[in-house]
Write the structure tokens for this entry.
Amino acid sequence: MNVRRRLIPAALASALGLGALTACSSDSAATGNTDKFDVVASFYPMAFLAQQIGGDHANVTSLTEPGQEPHDLEISTKQRAQLEEADAALYLKGLQPAVDEAVGQTGIKTKIDAATLTHLEDHGTGGHSHEGEEGHSEESEEEEHGRDPHVWLDPVKYAEIAQGVGKAFEKADPDHAADYKKNTEALVTKLKDLNGDFENGLKNTKTKVFFTNHAAFGYLAERYGLTQEAISGMDPESEPSGARVRELQQEAKADGVTTVFYETLVSDKTAKTLARDANLKTDVLDPIEGITDKSRGDDYFQVMEANLKALRTALGAK
């Protein structure tokens, strides 16, 4: 995920789409045709919320396949029909323009935009990258797309979204409102515990600076008093300039940085090149866009705990 992709014009955005894969059922055609509360979620972090809150009452379909970068999607007529037939759509506006367009064009009654359930911030590139000029003008019509969408990597903000989703489910499917409320409370409690783990685990570290392949961890860094330095700004596939590499090498020495993090869904080439040139280690810090066989865990909580362990090691936690 990256701001540069989010800033593409709507005309081009329509070329992006919704690869379909059910999160709870392998039969995506069943969406909207079951006797359960049918929810179409845009990608894994939204599908996970829907599954946790919906429980046995919900049939959840994710529009993004595991391992697929959320922006690399193609809309089909069948997938648009799935949205039309669903009871609810759960998405994060500004992250996947094609999803925004598709949801807006459907007559689906319950449209839940996670971006309205918490406060999104503009983290720029999360460091000193030189790719952040687009979308920063207050007068720009693309301003809202300049906001960092990676809110699920902050357990506190993710919990805020969970509470909003729970209320929306209760309203849309009142027959099971009590269960949705109970499930939401249980999920929020787990997220509060996760927040506590991160607070305690990152409280005392030798350094507060970490390098990432791209700027996905702005909310996490802000929440726990860390500084994220992104090699390539918001675009994980762009190559940093020579000046940027030299800048990072100098900062690594000054701030005691030991590790360059990369992620599972994009190439690790840039991170490993910088690490080699600066004599640093590499490790995975997962933005949890999807769960694959490369993920360090089977769900959001397991991968977040793996992220915490990796950060503690890299930052020299005491």
